[in-house]
Specification:
- 38% of the residues lie in helices and 20% in strands.
- It is α/β, with parallel strands linked by helices.
- It has 2 domains: 11-263 and 469-491, Aldehyde Dehydrogenase, Chain A, domain 1 (3-Layer(aba) Sandwich); 268-458, 3-Layer(aba) Sandwich (Aldehyde Dehydrogenase, Chain A, domain 2), CATH 3.40.309.10.
- A 7-stranded mixed beta sheet has the order 14-15-16-13-12-18-19, sandwiched between helices. The protein has a 6-stranded mixed beta sheet with strand order 9-8-7-10-11-21, sandwiched between helices. Strands 5-6-22 form a 3-stranded antiparallel beta sheet, with no helix packed on it.
- A hairpin with a 4-residue loop joins strand 3 (23-28) and strand 4 (33-39).
- Helix 2 (67-82) packs antiparallel against helix 4.
- The protein is globular and about 75 Å long.
- The N and C termini lie far apart (69 Å).
């Protein structure tokens, strides 16, 4: 096995320091054993990191470099990350329980691609733009005016990232923030710190100025709360649960920090009748997409399946047959399809919500228990539950595990009503050959993304949600502009 990342301590102001809050053990979710330890940071070290980022922004060269100069440094950083590919893959398997295929392709490969693509995207964006002012307003008897807007970095960014896709999420936040000219303090999930420390190694190797990137590890929430309240932080970018996102919003409000919150999801995969007239194969593929995507631990995964009433029995029979065939096992084994969830707490929560869903009238079609052949590890079988009532907890609560509900609908008006009856509105999928109807549904469904028969999630496409699914957008041009301020500058002829 490839050695894991060498750095195990906080990175502040261009240097790796000794953590002053003791050792933090990180549990391997496949074995339930502490796989390694890192040095945790106190709130005082969080303050030091914020101060370093503040100095680097207010006094250092980074925000004052041209976009091309920052891009050159970011390409060097990307090269340094690419050189750590094997280490990153092993780290995310050991930390997050990702299967080897998932770790190579979506966990690390996706993030490595983004580390260059997001620089490519940012590089040609204008830093000065003309405002859309009607010509008569610019020409007067005494002056000729030019109205422009200048895009400037927002300042010091606190990036707080989750355990499910740690490396990719770190890249999605840091690359646009740094390209915009911001400085960053990164606080990863305590369950998955190694990818963040690898990022710090790469930043040091790439020669980024001191204080531009800072990385701190902690076992509790105190440092993260400090990032959300410290007056030296200008923007908080957080990915995680809606409850924590709401708390961060409250903490950030007194100092008027800007927020990018990518939060919970309860996305629908809506099958029109024609998508299933040849049989339930597409629905089976949709279910597998949930189970194979890191054991269902993804905020935008389509975990609510809606099918016409007349097709529901055939879909349920097909899902009942495929569930037991899914290979559950050691994520290091290339044959494994479904690995563990990230922690005992996550597994226990999944069990509790499934029990609540069954108590509320749901019927287990397959799964709903720990696999009998796995004595250790935080495993849960791929689970399908047949429900009739959209008030069922399994339809309303984000489960964050390999659990799919199946509901029937009568007509498309009812399907849209069920889809929109949620506190979360991050994503949805519509499956049909009738693109005119799909286009109409895309306008009626209240989600940040609607996928019609296919998905496209990469560096160039925005991601974000409505309602409790978050605030703002990540990725794409909108994701870069989120880390910038628009300043109005008007020129006259003197």
């Amino acid at each position: 096995m490839t050695d894991l990342v060498a750095a195990r301590s906080p990175f502040v102001d261009g240097r790796f320091l000794t953590g002053d809050a003791g050792a933090l053990g990180v549990v391997n979710p496949a074995t339930e054993e502490v796989g390694f330890e890192v040095e945790a940071s106190s709130v005082a070290q969080f303050d030091a990191a914020i101060d370093a980022a503040r100095r680097a922004f207010d006094e250092g060269p980074w925000p004052r470099l041209s976009m091309a100069e920052r891009a050159a440094a970011m390409y060097r950083l990307s090269d340094a990350l690419h050189a750590r590919n094997d280490v990153l893959v092993e780290s995310v398997i050991v930390e997050a329980g990702a299967t080897r295929t998932m770790a190579q392709m979506m966990q690390v490969g996706f993030g490595l691609n983004a580390s260059r693509e997001m620089v490519d995207l940012a590089l040609p964006l204008p830093e000065w733009e003309h405002n859309e002012v009607p010509f008569p307003h610019l020409i007067g008897a005494r002056a000729v005016k030019v109205s422009t807007r200048r895009w400037e970095p927002v300042g010091v960014v606190a990036a707080i990232t989750p355990s499910n896709f740690p490396f990719t999420t770190n890249v999605w936040k840091l690359t646009p923030a740094l390209m915009a000219g911001c400085t960053v303090v990164l606080r990863p999930s305590p369950q998955t710190p190694l990818e963040a420390l690898a990022y710090a190694e790469a930043a040091e190797e790439a020669g980024l100025p001191p204080g531009v990137v800072n990385v701190l590890i902690e076992g509790g929430p105190e440092g993260a709360a400090r990032l959300s309240t410290h007056p030296g932080v200008d923007l908080v970018s957080f990915t995680g649960s809606s409850g924590v996102g709401a708390a961060i919003g409250a903490q950030a409000a007194p100092s008027m920090k800007r927020l990018i919150l990518e939060l919970g999801g309860k996305s629908v995969q809506l099958y029109l009748d024609d998508a299933l007239e040849a049989g339930p194969a597409k629905a089976v593929g949709g279910a597998m997409a949930v189970f194979m995507a890191h054991a269902g631990q993804g905020c935008s995964l389509q975990t609510r399946m809606l099918v016409p009433h007349a097709r529901k029995a055939a879909v349920l029979d097909a899902l009942a047959a495929v569930g037991p065939t899914i290979t559950i096992g050691d994520p290091q084994d290339a044959a494994t399809v479904l690995g563990p969830v990230v922690s005992a707490g996550s597994r226990d929560r999944i069990e509790r919500l499934v029990a609540e869903g069954v108590a509320a009238g749901g019927r287990v079609v397959t799964g709903a228990k720990r696999p009998e052949h796995m004595e250790r590890g935080f495993y849960f079988e791929p689970t399908v539950v047949d429900i009739d009532d959209n008030a069922n907890p399994l339809a309303q609560q984000e489960i964050f595990g390999p659990v799919l509900t199946v509901q029937g609908y009568g007509d498309l008006d009812e399907a849209v009503a069920i889809t929109n009856d949620s506190q979360y509105d991050l994503s949805a999928g519509v499956y049909t050959a009738d693109l005119d109807t799909a286009s109409d549904l895309a306008t009626r469904i209240r989600t940040g993304t609607v996928q019609v028969n296919t998905g496209l999630a990469n560096s160039y496409t925005p991601m974000g949600g409505y309602k409790n699914s978050g605030v703002g957008r990540e990725r794409g041009v909108l994701g870069l502009r989120a880390f910038q301020q628009a300043k109005h500058v008007v020129f006259g002829n003197g």
